[in-house]
Design brief:
By secondary structure, this protein is mainly beta. 7% of the residues lie in helices and 46% in strands. The protein has two helices and nine strands, in the order E-H-E-H-E-E-E-E-E-E-E. The strands form two sheets. Strands 4-3-6-7-9 form a five-stranded antiparallel beta sheet. A four-stranded mixed beta sheet has the order 5-1-2-8, with no helix packed on it. It is globular and about 35 Å long.
Length: 136
């Protein structure tokens, strides 16, 4: 299991005024074989807006034109928690996507698993979520 902390980052947080929220995302691999094959995780935080079903195609990594933040995380990681700074105030609802790859070149390497979920953001609140990856 890998834990990803998505920290709200805005001017208020940088100056110590106000809490803009935080999301803790536990990444669950479908099985040990997939986890052993994984060398990198791509985490995409995308604006879900009013779309109630943003995960109809969970393996689509394409650009949607919506606001988004993409991060690459080496896996296995020395620490179990990776921290991503994302301006959560930008998003009314999040579409969180995590993809596991067997290498670091996301155009050439093979995606071995992926998962997606939608969550309404709550400023000032720590939200703990779990995303189960499906084998590809």
């Amino acid at each position: 299991m890998m834990r990803v902390a998505i920290l709200g980052m805005a001017l208020a947080a940088l100056t110590g005024c106000g809490d803009v929220g935080r999301i803790v995302l536990d990444v669950q691999f479908p099985n040990e074989d997939v986890e052993l094959q994984t060398r990198a995780l791509e985490v995409i935080v995308r604006d879900a807006g009013n779309n109630q079903t943003p995960c109809t195609n969970p393996f689509d990594r394409g650009i949607t034109g919506e606001a988004e933040d993409r991060r690459l995380i080496e896996y296995p990681n020395i620490v179990d928690t990776s921290v991503l700074n994302v301006d959560l105030a930008t998003y009314s609802a999040l579409n969180l996507r995590v993809y596991a790859f067997d290498g670091f070149d996301f155009e050439a390497d093979r995606m071995v698993a992926g998962g997606c979920l939608r969550e309404v953001t709550q400023p000032g609140v720590t939200t703990e979520l779990s995303i189960a990856l499906d084998p590809r």
